[in-house]
Prior knowledge:
Blueprint: H1 14-20, H2 24-35, E1 50-52, E2 57-60, E3 66-68, H3 82-94, H4 101-108, H5 113-126, E4 138-146, E5 162-174, E6 181-193, H6 198-208, E7 214-217, H7 223-226, E8 232-235
Parallel strand pairs: 4-7, 7-8
Antiparallel strand pairs: 1-2, 2-3, 4-5, 5-6
Helix pairs in contact: 4-5
Amino acid sequence: MTNFAFTEEFPNSEIEFDQRFSNTEACYEYLARIKWPDGYICEKCGHNAYWLSSNNFYICKRCEHQVSLTAGTIMHGTRKPITYWFKAMWWFTTRKSGVSSVNLQELLGLGSYHTAWSWLQKLRRCTVRKDREKLSGRVEVDEFFIGGQKSGKRGRGAEGKTIVLAGIERYTAQDPETLNSCWQIGRVRLQVALDCSAYSLETFINHNIETGSMVVTDKLNSYRPALNQEYHHIQVEPARQKDPE
């Protein structure tokens, strides 16, 4: 096995990262040191001797209990080499400007854009605090598109754009100058989506908005099946921007 200390600091450069995690064995050894910092112990019988299978399962020599180091992680069941996942995590956590699905697909040489998008979604979910409270009260939900100006169809049918779903809490507060009530912006949730289908909208709403909340959307047809009876749904006409004179 590769010999490196678990207590080593985070790699200072991509070259250092590549040296430490250049092969599958180094990646699995790192995971093993995280799981068993004092050495392997069978979680079933407490024995400390094992043998390693060809598919990287740790098998207890006494009771033959099997353990996969990727079980319970976003890497479990992957068909790609674990080195790809480690590299993806490196880019995801170190690039100041972030990494897009297109970037990740090109950097890893993935054949499918959907695979890159799925990996990024899993990585982003890892950065979200599991016990954070969902949005509640009056929540406005909408979608917008990120990308430079391009010729062709505009709006939801535009190609080459990144779709972002947004949920924004709105509450009334008193303006200290006029003493009139006005709408204020509360917490915000954003999520990249593949499309604006009812499934994508429903997934976003269920994950981010407390049931019983008032959800305000425009009149996109996909919102109706996405919002079930657990939400109070209000549809409004989108505000139209005036053309410059």
